[in-house]
Structures are given as structure tokens and as C-alpha cells.
């Protein structure tokens, strides 16, 4: 399935957070050699490839999303030689390798920023976004950072503020400067030449800002109170019309697309974060000179996953140019088994099946195939600066970043030979360890493997167009069709038993779904089925 120039269309990819995946040297932190050790496990899932979260040189103020050298591996993770071995082993196993690229900002320890911050003169003085104070000494406008507080920090050496959409230690690059664009494209070429198959582009719509620094207007739909979700920053109260999603970003993406397309079989997937996430996702993939695919926080920001959530995702792309990607979770949000499924295994399974039936490319986050719940972490063990600064009693992003449980026994559930790991292992995760589930044909792991295999083997399910059809309340129902091949995907998402009229041959049953007399199927709470249909 992973062959061909457009191998990524309809593929399932597996996200690895290296710090928490596998520790090869006993220091309590995951590394690239550890990832390489577990690539056979990932290939056994049936996925087409992996997405590696950042492993580059970094002071780790935001755990790798603050890069101090784009072309170097941080010693915590290993060396460039370790990375080359990882790529070679992945390719031997038929896996593609996508790496995270964090291009909207760098670390404040990056040599580019240290030179830029030193004075207003010099070759890199304009490589970051600098602005004079307002007349009363306050920041130049009202822009708010995602981690809380103004998007501006004062730097005495320049007597100016610099822009940061995230932590003050993550200054924003100035893409209005042609030299910055050239330097970033050089970084892209460096990793493409090392054999990577594509890039996951962090907050890619944040590259450009309004040079007039116009205040953002308020967001009339925003609230700071979301049940079951992570802490909310005041940045949600603004409509971000001036500090992100500027039209000039698309011109830069055209340059990037040309660079990537010059090498056969490479791709880009962009993280697009905006108030109107789905339209922006479509805009950023509409045409051969933009991203190959993009995903939004449509599912990641949700705290309820009823039919309407999936219906909106499907309907939004009906007839649209471009290609979507979807995920129920990643390293930035609470684990979906808790956030969306309420730690109900049957509910988690039907959501996994629904995700893997969607049109587009699918991303699974490490541990989702095991049904891991959000980890519980005491405040004194939190590491994420956002979770600490905005603590309201939960584990925040750290709850999805705890070590991967490989075995039920051992000092750290097989993640490390050390009992002291950078984040603690949740005791509940031990019972869900990969080794234990691999021996159980009824496990979430076995279920996920079967569903991935079905998607890979059914062209209609992987590449076909989607069309919603009417179903009882609480039921998500749609067809996937490619040429003469058609399948129906039907999932009960609200926890009620229903019967539904469906003709066709069931090829996949979820949580006790059963065929009744001809033309009817019974779905128990959180049950579902995929049926092969005849020609229309």
C-alpha cells in the first residue's frame, strides 16, 4: 500500500513521541535507537509509515518544539547516525518516515535569534519579528500567546519587543524576510536528502503576520470554559485574523511544494490551527502548489464525538479540492479514550473504527492502538510548561505523553531499564501493555490491527468518495465508493441499542453488532459494522 508517488492518500500513519516511546540506554528518556528497536512492532500494525515528533537540538523548554539547531539531533535522542539507521530500518520494513518541522518559531537559544537579539544592526537583525513599544510602554498590540499572556516580550539589548505565539522562549521567525524563507527551504532540503519521505509541519498557518500589527478583534463565539478539556488560554477570546493565516503563507507553501515534488514520493502534511479550522484545512490543500494534505483540531479539540462531529468532517470536504487528514488524538491533547470515550473500551473501539473509515489520511498516536486512557500525574511530576502554568487539577498535555507500556512487568513497563522515567508510568497502563494485548485476539490492539488491515485492503474504504445517508438518532452512517466498489460504514456513537435496515455483506463487526434477518442489522451500544454493497 505504501508504494507509488501518492502512497499517502488513504494511508494510516503512526505518530511517535520519541521522548516517551522507548528508552534504549536506561536514562529514563526515549531515544531514536529505541524507536528503531520497535519499528517491527509498528510495521506489524499494518500502517504505511511513521511521523516522528521533534528530535532536534533543543533546550527542551517545550520538549523539542523549541529548536536550537534544525540540522542536529539533540544528544538526548542520539546522533544523526542513529537517525540514518532508523530511516534505513524503517524503509527495510516498508515504512515511510515523516518528521516534524517547527518552522514558525525557533528556540531563543538558536544562534539566529541570539544574533538578531543582540542589536538592530547586522545580517540577522530582521530575521525575527521586532516592534517598538506603544507610547505608554506596553506591547505594540493586543495579540495573545497560546500559552497565556501577551505575544510580546521585551528585549533590553534592542529596546524592542519580539513576537512569540507560544512561550517567550519560542520567538517567531520573520517570513517577510526572504533570507529566512531561503534558510528554511535549505533545512527542508537537508532532511529530504537524508531520505525522509515527508514533513509534518507544525502550526504551518502561523508563518506570516500582518506587518501593520493590527489588533485582533474579539471572537464572539469564544469561551474560557470547556468541559473535560485542557486549560484554555485567553488567546481563544480573539479572532486571529492578523497574527496567522495570512495569504502570503500560500506563496511560501508553493515554493516548498516545488522543492518536495522534485523528489518522487515525498509529501507534506500541515497542522492547521484556526478558529474556522475545516475551511482553512481545505484552503491549504486546494491545488497542486499547496500542502499535499492537512489536518486540523476538528476532532482533537472536541470533548464529545457524536455523529454530528463526524458528519461535519465528511460534509465539509464533499466536492472540495485537496485531501484531508484526521486524528482523534496526539501529544497536545488528552487521550481520546478518556476525552471522547469516557474510558469505556467499547466506545473507544467504535470511535477507532469510525476514524479508520473516514475519507482522507489517518494518523494514530502511539498508545491509541492499546486504548490507553489519559494518565494521571501529580502536580509535582508535571513537566509541560503549559500544564504547570495553567494548572487546574489535571495532567494537561503530559497525560498523553507518559511512557509507552510495552510489558506489564518491569521497573517502567518495558519502556526503560530505569525505574525513574521523565514522566511516571500510569499503573493502569501496565494492564494494557502491548505484549499482553498481542497475545489476546479480543484486545484493542488486535481490533485496531484488523481495522487497519481492512482499510488497506478495501480500495473503496481507503480512497473512495464518502456520502452520508440517513440513520437512526445516534448513528453515524455513510458509504465509501470507488468505481464499482461500495461499502457502508455504520456506527452507533451515543450508547443506545438500535436496529437499522442495511443490505450487503458484513465484512467487519464492532462490539457485538450482528446480522439479523436479511436486510437488517442490530447495533448494540457503541456497536458498528462495515458492509460490502453491490453496485448502485
Structure in words:
- With 536 residues, this protein is of the alpha/beta class.
- 24% of the residues lie in helices and 17% in strands.
- It contains 15 helices and 21 strands.
- It has an 8-stranded parallel sheet.
- Helix 5 (178-193) packs parallel to helix 6 (248-261) and helix 10 (345-355) runs parallel beside helix 14.
- The radius of gyration is 23 Å and the shape is globular.
- The model has no long low-confidence stretch (mean pLDDT 94).
Topology (elements, then pairings):
Layout: E1 12-16, H1 32-37, H2 39-45, E2 49-52, E3 56-57, E4 69-73, H3 80-92, E5 96-101, H4 111-118, E6 130-131, E7 152-155, E8 160-163, H5 178-193, E9 198-201, H6 248-261, E10 267-271, H7 277-283, E11 293-295, H8 307-316, E12 325-326, H9 336-339, H10 345-355, E13 361-365, H11 385-389, H12 427-430, H13 434-438, H14 444-457, H15 459-463, E14 465-468, E15 475-482, E16 485-492, E17 498-501, E18 505-510, E19 514-515, E20 520-523, E21 528-533
Parallel strand pairs: 1-2, 1-13, 2-5, 5-9, 9-10, 10-11, 12-13
Antiparallel strand pairs: 3-4, 6-8, 7-8, 14-15, 15-16, 16-21, 17-20, 18-21, 19-20
Terminal Cα separation, in Å? 27 Å
Unreliable parts = none
Number of alpha- plus pi-helical segments: 15
User: In one word, what is the shape?
Assistant: globular
Strand order of the largest sheet: 11-10-9-5-2-1-13-12
**Could you tell me the mean pLDDT?**
94
Structural class category: alpha/beta
Amino acid at each position: 500500500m505504501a508504494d507509488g508517488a501518492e502512497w499517502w492518500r488513504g494511508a494510516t500513519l503512526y505518530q511517535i513521541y520519541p521522548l516517551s516511546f522507548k528508552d534504549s540506554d536506561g536514562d529514563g528518556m526515549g531515544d531514536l535507537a529505541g524507536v528503531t528497536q520497535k519499528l517491527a512492532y509498528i510495521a506489524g500494525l499494518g500502517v504505511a509509515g511513521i511521523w516522528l515528533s521533534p528530535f532536534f537540538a533543543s533546550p527542551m523548554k517545550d520538549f523539542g518544539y523549541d529548536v536550537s539547531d534544525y540540522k542536529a539531533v539533540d544528544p538526548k535522542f542520539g546522533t544523526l547516525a542513529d537517525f540514518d539507521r532508523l530511516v534505513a530500518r524503517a524503509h527495510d520494513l516498508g515504512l515511510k518516515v515523516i518528521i516534524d518541522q517547527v518552522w514558525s518559531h525557533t528556540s531563543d537559544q538558536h544562534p539566529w535569534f541570539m544574533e538578531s537579539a543582540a542589536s538592530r544592526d547586522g545580517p540577522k537583525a530582521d530575521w525575527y519579528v521586532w516592534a517598538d513599544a506603544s507610547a505608554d510602554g506596553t506591547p505594540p498590540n493586543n495579540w495573545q500567546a497560546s500559552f497565556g499572556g501577551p505575544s510580546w516580550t521585551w528585549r533590553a539589548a534592542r529596546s524592542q519587543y519580539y513576537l512569540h505565539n507560544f512561550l517567550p522562549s519560542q520567538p517567531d521567525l520573520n517570513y517577510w524576510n526572504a533570507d529566512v524563507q531561503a534558510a528554511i527551504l535549505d533545512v527542508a532540503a537537508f532532511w529530504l536528502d537524508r531520505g525522509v519521505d515527508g514533513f509534518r509541519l507544525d502550526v504551518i498557518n502561523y508563518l506570516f503576520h500582518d506587518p501593520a500589527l493590527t489588533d485582533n478583534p474579539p471572537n464572539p463565539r469564544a469561551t474560557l470554559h470547556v468541559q473535560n478539556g485542557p486549560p484554555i488560554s485567553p488567546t481563544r477570546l480573539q479572532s486571529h485574523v492578523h497574527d496567522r493565516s495570512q495569504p502570503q503563507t500560500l506563496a511560501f507553501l508553493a515554493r516548498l511544494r516545488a522543492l518536495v515534488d522534485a523528489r518522487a514520493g515525498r509529501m507534506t502534511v500541515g497542522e492547521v490551527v484556526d478558529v474556522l479550522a475545516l475551511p482553512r484545512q481545505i484552503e491549504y490543500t486546494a491545488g497542486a502548489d499547496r500542502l499535499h494534505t492537512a489536518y486540523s483540531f476538528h476532532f482533537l479539540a472536541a470533548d464529545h464525538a457524536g455523529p454530528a462531529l463526524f458528519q461535519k468532517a465528511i460534509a465539509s470536504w464533499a466536492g472540495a479540492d485537496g485531501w484531508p487528514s484526521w486524528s482523534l488524538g496526539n501529544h497536545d491533547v488528552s487521550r481520546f479514550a478518556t476525552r471522547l470515550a469516557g474510558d469505556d473500551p467499547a466506545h473507544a473501539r467504535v470511535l477507532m473504527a469510525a476514524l479508520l473509515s473516514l475519507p482522507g489520511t489517518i494518523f494514530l498516536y502511539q498508545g491509541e492502538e492499546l486504548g490507553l486512557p489519559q494518565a494521571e500525574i501529580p502536580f509535582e511530576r508535571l513537566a509541560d510548561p503549559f500544564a504547570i502554568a495553567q494548572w487546574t487539577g489535571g495532567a494537561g498535555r503530559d497525560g498523553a505523553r507518559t511512557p509507552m507500556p510495552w510489558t506489564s512487568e518491569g521497573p517502567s513497563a518495558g519502556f526503560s531499564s530505569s525505574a525513574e522515567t521523565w514522566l511516571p508510568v500510569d499503573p493502569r497502563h501496565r494492564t494494557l501493555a502491548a505484549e499482553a494485548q498481542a497475545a489476546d485476539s479480543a484486545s484493542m490492539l488486535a481490533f485496531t490491527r484488523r481495522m487497519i488491515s481492512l482499510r488497506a485492503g478495501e480500495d473503496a474504504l481507503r480512497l473512495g468518495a464518502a456520502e452520508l445517508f440517513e440513520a437512526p438518532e445516534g448513528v453515524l452512517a455513510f458509504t465509501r465508493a470507488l468505481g464499482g466498489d461500495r461499502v457502508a460504514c455504520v456506527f452507533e456513537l451515543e450508547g443506545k441499542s438500535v436496529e437499522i435496515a442495511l443490505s450487503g455483506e458484513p465484512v467487519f463487526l464492532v462490539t457485538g453488532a450482528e446480522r439479523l434477518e436479511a436486510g437488517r442489522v442490530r447495533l448494540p451500544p457503541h456497536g458498528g459494522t462495515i458492509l460490502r454493497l453491490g453496485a448502485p
